[in-house]
Every structure is written in structure tokens, then in C-alpha cells.
Amino acid sequence: MKKTTIKDIARELNVSTSTVSRALRDSFEIGAETKQRVLELAKRLDYTPDPVALSLLSSHSNDIGVIVPDISNPFFALVIAGIEDVAFAQGYHVVIYQSHDNYEREVMNVRHIANRRKDGMLVSLATGTQDYAHFKALHEQGFPIVFFDRICDEIDTHKVSVDDFEGAYQATEHLIKQGCKTIAHISGPPNLLISRRRLHGYRSALLDYKIPIMEDIIMSSEYNSQEALIITRRLLGGSVKVDGIFASSDNIAIGSHAAITEAGLSMPHDIALIGFSDLPITSLLNPPLSTVAQPAFEMGRSAAELLINLIKNPKDDRVSISNVLRTGLVVRESSLKIQ
Predict the structure, then answer these.
(1) What pLDDT score does 251 carry?
(2) How many Å apart are CA 74 and CA 70, to the nearest integer?
(3) Distance, first Cα to last Cα, the chain
(4) What is the C-alpha to C-alpha distance for residues 120 and 307, in angstroms, rounded to an integer?
(5) Which ranges carry the HTH lacI-type domain (predicted)?
(6) Are 325 and 299 a contacting pair, CB within 8 Å?
(7) CATH 3.40.50.2300 domain extents, the chain
């Protein structure tokens, strides 16, 4: 069926298209009688406005771009659910982009969001991102950007994260209280702020409990289980015998879990293991994985609320808000030596 347009209504009523457009927008420039005739005919012809044309008139598309490293990661799926919960209630549509942890892909996503007239964007940085020029240019033009989880501290805008330092400290402290003396840390990529904060939390716990920090058993991995498996094999084959591992994410911990099992070692008796995120799969491993829980859904809600407020009240960006959410220790069999 042919869609009714403003031109069709104008032709039927013998008025200009600009008159019809103003009447549909309830402009004071159009008389009540003409406005009524336009609205009645529009309803009878089942006219629906073109959303693209409306966005050009209003300078708003009511679309929000969301860039995540990997939508298959249950953590980001939960964050997106939180974003959509708030956005839908506020009349916004959410368009998801994946960077696949690739800097070039992230740059392309940012350009696409800007070119397609999205009202703003929510971003969790790709692992490979070390140059933030693509964000800085948009931010300087006043385009609303809010970072979550993997945040950028070089851009003065709203951010939502968890207390990575405290969560890492608690995880390391838990291993210490289970009797671990030689605790390794498999960190995430060092260019990411969350990796550095979690490493700092690990180091601080060891210092507070007067346990020597051994640089040889601090290693770095991408946030995926495949690379973590290789890194953990290298750790277990080294000269230092570790009795505990704090992994910077559950995906890293899953790789470590597989490597420990592969080496014929038992958890927690030979090596206690703890991760960070509390992905659904962690409770299904054998043994179930201890971890640090992150409020992913609440992170998404908080980020969306900040962005929508920024879109509606652009002058509010003069004071940047940094929402830091609390984590929680989830102890399971992979680390529970003392019972």
C-alpha cells in the first residue's frame, strides 16, 4: 500500500505542504479551523509521520548508540538490558554496535553513530583502544557521550564503573584468608583503566598483609579464556609454585580453571582461584568459580539515565558525574580451602 504523505494531504485540501506540516506540529501560525481539517484528514488517510523527517525538524532522532566489545559476553548483555529498561521508558530506541575489541572497528562505529544523527552514545572501550581522538572530537562538538565499565579518564564526561580497586582487594584478601601465600595475578590489558585498578587492588592487599609482591607471577592477558589458558599454562610451568590465582575477569578465570584442571591440579587444595564479574557460567564449572559480582544491570540503567539527562539538558555537562557501583564477593568451591 502506498503510504500517505504530507503532499497527499496538501493536495486534497488545496493548501501548501508547509501549512500541513505546521498544522501537524500544532504551530500557532495556523488557524484552528485549518488545523482541524488537516488533523481530521490525516487521521482518515492513516497518515504516520516519517521519523527521519521528524528528526531533521527536531534535531533529535530518539536513538541512542551503544558500543560494546562483545554482545555475546553475558556481562554486556545484562548492561544492555539495563540500558534498554531506562531508554524504552523515556521514549528512546537503542542501537547496538560491537567493536569486537578492535580499535579500527570502534572508530567506524563512532563515525556511524555521529553520521546517522543518533542523539548520544554509551561506550565501553575496546581492548585495542589507546588513542581517544575519535571520542574527543565529538565531545568537543558537544555530542553527548557516557562511558561505562571500560571508561576513558582522558575525556571529561559522565562515567559509570564499579569499584574495581575494592573488588580486587577483597578477592585477594579472600585468598590470603584461605591460607594462600603465593598469589599470582592474571591482569587484563594494561592500557585499560579497569585492569590497572584491579592490579592496584591486588598489590595493596598483599602489602597490607605483608606478603611479598612477586613480579614474575603477575601476568597480563586479553579478556578472553583462550589467551588466559595459554598464560596460565606458562604460569604453572614457571619456577614459582603458586597456591592462589586472582584473575582480572571471569573470562580470564575460565581459561585459568581449564589450565589448572589440565595440569592435574585440584582447586582449591593445590591452587585457589577467583575471578571478577560473576558470569552465569561460573556457578556451573567444576568446581564452581569464586568471583567478584558486578551489578551489570544497574550499571546499564545508571549509564542510560546519565546520557538521557545529558541529551535533554546539555548544559548539565559542566559538572561530570562519575558513578562508582559497589561489588560483592561471591565465594564458591574453587577458592574455599577453610571450611
Answers:
(1) 95
(2) 9
(3) 71
(4) 7
(5) 4-58
(6) yes
(7) 61-162+296-325, 164-294
Domain 164-294 CATH superfamily: Response regulator (3.40.50.2300)
Q: What is the pLDDT of residues 293-309, one digit of tens each?
A: 999 999 999 999 999 99
Residues of each domain in the chain carrying CATH 1.10.260.40:
6-49
Indicate the SS3 state at residue 95: strand
Residue with cell 601476568: 219
Residues 297, 80: contact at Cβ < 8 Å? no
Query: What are the backbone angles phi and psi of residue 161, rounded to the nearest 5°?
Result: -145, 180
Alpha helix segments (H runs only) across the chain: 6-13, 17-24, 32-44, 51-58, 74-89, 103-115, 133-140, 164-177, 193-208, 225-236, 250-262, 296-312
List of long-range contacts for 12-18, beta carbons under 8 Å, 24+ apart: 12/41, 12/45, 13/37, 13/38, 13/41
Given a cut of 70, whether residue 37 has pLDDT beyond it is yes
DSSP run (H or E) holding 325: strand 322-325
pLDDT tens digits for range 119-151: 999 999 999 899 999 999 888 888 899 999 999
Alpha-carbon dihedral sign for residues 85, 87, 93, 94: negative
Which residues on adjacent β-strands are paired with residue 91? none
Split at pLDDT 50, 70, 90, the class of 52 is very low
Cell numbers given for 153? 579518564
Q: Which CATH superfamily is domain 61-162+296-325 in?
A: Response regulator (3.40.50.2300)
Report pLDDT for 282.
96
Question: What 3-state DSSP class applies to 132?
Answer: coil
Cis peptide leading into residue 144 (ω within 30°): no
Query: 168-225 pLDDT, tens per residue?
Result: 999 999 999 999 999 999 999 999 999 999 999 999 999 999 999 999 999 999 999 9
How far does CA 162 lie from the centroid of its chain? Answer: 11
Higher pLDDT, 10 or 87: 87
CA atoms of 276 and 166, how far apart (whole Å): 12
Of 34-38, 98-102, 245-249, minimum mean pLDDT range: 34-38
Peptide bond into 189 cis (omega under 30): no
